[in-house]
Design brief:
Elements (H helix, E strand, L loop, with lengths): L21 E7 L3 E8 L4 E8 L7 H16 L13 E8 L8 H13 L7 E3 L1 H9 L5 E6 L3 E7 L2 E7 L11 H18 L4 H11 L11 H16 L9 H10 L3 H19 L10 E4 L8 H13 L4 E3 L3 H13 L6 H8 L4
Parallel strand pairs: 1-4, 4-5, 6-9, 9-10
Antiparallel strand pairs: 1-2, 2-3, 6-7, 7-8
Helix pairs in contact: 1-2, 3-10, 4-7, 4-8, 5-7, 7-8, 8-9, 10-11
């Protein structure tokens, strides 16, 4: 999971004694792969980054990027200081699309990247829900909701995911997600075209986003509506469906312009995400709920309405996820020794810079 917060930069380069025990955390996202190595006090001593590491979409290149980021992290913060891979004693890797690692041929490629970097401990691969929860709170129990391109919620007990809701993918679910917003914006436009009604500000913006080379201006003739409808349907169906999520930004921009349709879509998205959470939580639950992803972010209108809706329906703190790789590294400390999973270490590894 990738959430837009950077790890706090260390004040000084940490100089390690030869016998120092280290842990490794990883975040394999669709657009980036990030690795952090830390000592038992939660000090970052190495970090690496590479291109996307989602094992579902392109496993071979994802595994290669995984290995590249590991090797970079092992050079340490000081390029002259190479970390001994055998001193890494515990590792937790968060992976978007992590279920692909259950396939032997995919797992073999990631195992080769791991051992090729000289690492000998056995990494624990977990999903982005667990990573997001750990990045938002050091509590052992609670719930988490990710709403970005897709959407999913999870119930966490003793730092482990025990139940999920939604996360069914764009074809079957992901209600209230960026994909949902984009699809519903386009559907509302097509309904208006079918009825020969004005398409409004959001509709005009969707036309511009999907058909950027089309001449600007309203559509007045019924024949014109039919031609526009056909152009939209043909263009959208020629692209990967997930690209509809790009229209979420168009909805938000129209929302900021007080477009009526955009307001209705944003409100409905927040309601659907609240319903997803309600599949896992009851009104008596008082553990924290961690929100992650761009749609659920504090700067998003969906995120703002969602936070209010959650507070109206549930008890417990509503928190925002920080850097996923920091959460994974903190979980690795706990895997090494539960006594190391302290709040202080969590703050050092996860909290955004002031």
């Amino acid at each position: 999971m990738s959430v837009d917060h950077a790890l706090p930069e260390p004040q000084d380069t940490v100089v390690l004694r030869p016998a120092t025990t280290l842990v490794l955390g990883g975040d394999l996202g669709g657009t980036s792969t990030r690795i952090v190595i830390a000592d038992h006090d939660g000090n970052v001593v190495g970090r690496g980054a590479a291109a996307g590491g989602n094992p579902t979409s392109h496993p071979a290149s994802a595994a290669a990027n995984f290995g590249q980021a590991i090797r970079q992290a092992l050079t340490g913060l000081d390029p002259a200081l190479a970390l001994d891979p055998t001193t890494v004693k515990a590792a937790v890797i968060g992976a978007a699309g992590g279920s692909a690692l259950s396939k032997p041929e995919v797992a073999a490629q990631f195992d080769a990247a791991w051992s090729g970097a000289g690492l000998v401990c056995t990494p624990r691969y977990i999903g982005d829900l667990e990573v997001a929860f750990a990045s938002g709170t050091p509590e052992a129990d609670g719930a988490v909701l990710i709403a970005g391109t897709g959407s999913a919620a999870g119930l966490v007990r003793d730092h482990r995911l025990v139940r999920t809701a939604d996360g069914h993918g764009w074809l079957l679910g992901d209600d209230g997600s960026g994909f949902w917003l984009g699809r519903e914006a386009l559907r509302s436009l097509l309904r208006a075209l079918d009825l020969g009604e004005p398409i409004g500000g959001l509709g005009e913006a969707v036309v511009q986003a999907v058909l950027p080379d089309r001449q600007e201006g309203g559509v007045a003739e019924r024949e014109g509506y039919d031609l526009l409808r056909d152009d939209l349907i043909r263009t959208v169906n020629s692209r990967p469906p997930v690209l509809l999520a790009e229209l979420a930004r168009t909805v938000v921009a129209a929302y900021d312009q007080n477009d009526k349709t955009a307001h209705a879509l944003v409100k409905r998205a927040a309601e659907l995400l609240t319903e997803t959470v309600s599949r896992l939580r009851t009104t008596s639950d008082n553990g924290p709920l961690v929100l992650a992803g761009s749609v659920a972010g504090e700067s998003s209108p969906v995120g703002r309405l969602l936070r209010q809706s959650i507070r109206d329906h549930f008890h417990g703190e509503v928190l925002t996820a920080h850097d996923g790789v920091g959460g994974a590294t903190w979980l690795a400390l706990g895997a090494l020794d539960p006594a190391l999973a302290t709040r202080d270490n969590h703050t050092r590894l996860v909290a955004p810079p002031a």
